[in-house]
Automatic annotation (TrEMBL):
Source organism (scientific name): Rousettus aegyptiacus
Residue ranges of every copy of the HTH psq-type domain listed in the record: 3-54
Keywords: DNA-binding, Nucleus
PANTHER family documented for this protein: TIGGER TRANSPOSABLE ELEMENT-DERIVED PROTEIN 6, TRANSPOSON
Keyword Nucleus: yes
Official protein name in the record: Tigger transposable element derived 6
Compartment list: Nucleus
Positions of the DNA-binding region: 30-50
Presence of the UniProt keyword Cell cycle in the record: no
Chain ranges of the HTH CENPB-type domain: 66-137
Gene3D superfamilies cross-referenced by the UniProt entry: Homeodomain-like
Length: 524
């Protein structure tokens, strides 16, 4: 009996606990799961009761999956500050030793007002264990070997080695690239020179920008729903709006953050799990991508630092094409307003979201495939005719459009359409922390991801009246009549109009049917 009482208690890591929970989720009987993992029924019940805590810790990557306890650090604010600094440094592939971490901890502790804190070796070991730092370095696919300043020889070496290993088990349909870009969504042609080269890390212009995340596969057959980050969480133009052609989030600077990127990543992972797919996702090393959550169906591969200009498909023309289409749409709106009595109002967030999403969906498959070929990641053949169509179809029409608007709005002669398209290419898309900001973020009462106020920086436009479904159906009928008076309308346009009409009619008939059933039941 004495031996039984002194039996050593077994401890489980987070990874082991999650495996137990997943085994129950798979449909196995709890008794069988307990026997399989050698635990008692009461221990299994405790795991299931605490599953939300386990999932949150793993999802936030705040502790390593091998860790067995979830106690907070004695100096919790110092721990958070050092970890925030470490994430930023690690994202830049800068080598960090234990002594460097200890010195930084002492420095940050002093800034936080702690005189008695000692960054001992024991503290360092506990810090590394709490955050699974050694484990995170392994998960980077050895990208730390590919340091800053890579030349063309190193790029070729990566093409010949690293990427071949990454893509070996995936088809082009299952290899994806994701990247962010900044957009001055209200930029007018005559202000192009003032915006060129602006990083927009704050100030007045922060109210006029968005950050957009795009993702597509190597075969060009699948483009993911865009994620757009603005500054206002509840802009007036989105009041009563329940459906958008993208996902919309907001924070103080309209930047991509780790929380937003990880949320997007987990949603994508859930979709792949539901579709029973496994994919490879190639991303760069920006700070928002530095600490990823636990993923089941997505393998993440990091592109070498400072080489995205030649290795990242989205940077090799896909995002540029999206911006060209977006700016073209802006020019058309400006030209229409110049030729009417309508006031020259600025674009609001809703209009910008609609146009950015429309531009993204309009990027052709041939353009996507060509950019993946330029990156040299996936070898695919594209016919010469496919390569030529993207340039020849739009260039002439867009140049004429630009010329007309440029003359009417007094744009300087040296400003070309391509300058207008690339004016916001240098926008900062994620936060880079310095020590003072690390401390501010640690001790602040409000989260730095907190969105701006509802109306701050938003264009003041009259509120749009609510449109009834009957009015919407009437508008479709008017549009159908207008198109019937035009010459040479493609059949696809009428087909799209029929789809809209069918959707509206199904909604209104379902509403009428439901109301009739309700009336019938009330009379019984």
């Amino acid at each position: 009996m004495a031996n039984k009482g002194n039996k050593k208690r077994r401890q489980f890591s987070l990874e082991e606990k999650m495996k137990v929970v997943e085994a129950v989720d798979s449909g196995k009987r709890k008794g069988d799961v307990a026997k399989e993992f050698g635990i008692t029924p009461s221990t299994l019940s405790t795991f299931l009761k605490d599953r939300a805590k386990f999932e949150e810790k793993v999802r936030e990557a705040s502790v390593g999956p091998q860790r067995k306890r979830m106690r907070n650090a004695l100096y919790d604010d110092i721990d958070k500050a050092v970890f925030a600094w470490f994430q930023e440094i690690h994202a830049k592939n800068i080598l960090v030793t234990g002594s460097v971490i200890r010195k930084k901890a002492l420095n940050l502790a002093n800034m936080l007002g702690y005189d008695n804190f000692q960054a001992s070796v024991g503290w360092l070991n506990r810090f590394r264990d709490r955050h699974g730092i050694a484990l995170k370095a392994v998960c980077r696919e050895d990208s730390d070997r590919l340091m800053n300043g890579l030349g063309i020889d190193k790029v070729n070496e990566w093409h010949a080695g690293e990427i071949i290993k990454l893509i070996a088990d995936y088809s082009p349909d299952d290899i994806f690239n994701a990247d962010e870009t900044g957009v001055f969504f209200q930029l007018l042609p005559q202000h192009t020179l003032a915006a060129k080269g602006d990083h927009c890390r704050g100030g007045k212009k922060a109210k006029q920008r968005l950050t957009a995340l795009f993702c597509c596969n190597a075969s060009g057959t699948e483009k993911m729903r865009p994620l757009i980050v603005g500054r206002s969480a509840n802009p007036q133009c989105l009041k009563n709006v329940h459906s958008l052609p993208c996902d919309y989030r907001a924070n103080q600077w309209a930047w991509m953050t780790q929380d937003l990127f990880n949320e997007w990543l987990l949603q994508m992972d859930a979709r792949m799990k539901q579709a029973e797919r496994r994919i490879l996702l190639l991303i760069d090393n920006c700070s928002a991508h530095s600490m990823l959550p636990r993923l089941e169906r997505i393998q993440v591969g990091y592109l070498p630092s400072n080489c995205t200009a030649v290795l990242q498909p989205l940077n090799l023309g896909i995002i540029h094409t999206m911006k060209m289409l977006y700016r073209s749409c802006l020019l058309k709106q400006i030209l229409l307003k110049l030729n009417s009595s309508e006031d020259q109002r600025k674009v609001d967030i809703k209009q910008a979201i609609d146009m950015i999403a429309a531009a993204w969906w309009s990027v052709k498959q041939s353009t996507v495939v060509t950019c993946w070929q330029k990156a040299g990641i996936v070898p695919m053949e594209l016919t010469d005719s496919d390569k030529e169509t993207a340039a020849s179809e739009t260039d002439t029409a867009v140049e004429k459009l630009w010329h007309s608007v440029a003359i009417a709005t007094c744009v300087p002669n040296e400003v070309k359409f391509q300058d207008f398209v690339t004016a916001d290419d240098d926008l900062t898309i994620s936060q880079e922390l310095i020590d003072t900001e690390v401390i501010q973020n640690t001790v602040a009462d409000e989260n730095t991801d907190e969105a701006g106020s509802e109306d701050e920086g938003e264009v003041s436009l009259p509120q749009q009246p609510k449109i009834t479904i009957t009015e919407a159906i009437s508008s479709v009928q008017k549009l159908r009549w207008f198109l019937s008076t035009c010459v040479g309308v493609p059949d696809t346009i009428f087909g799209q109009l029929n789809g809209i009409d069918d959707y509206l009619m199904r909604r209104v008939t379902q509403t009428l049917v439901d109301s009739k059933i309700t009336d019938f039941l009330q009379t019984k």
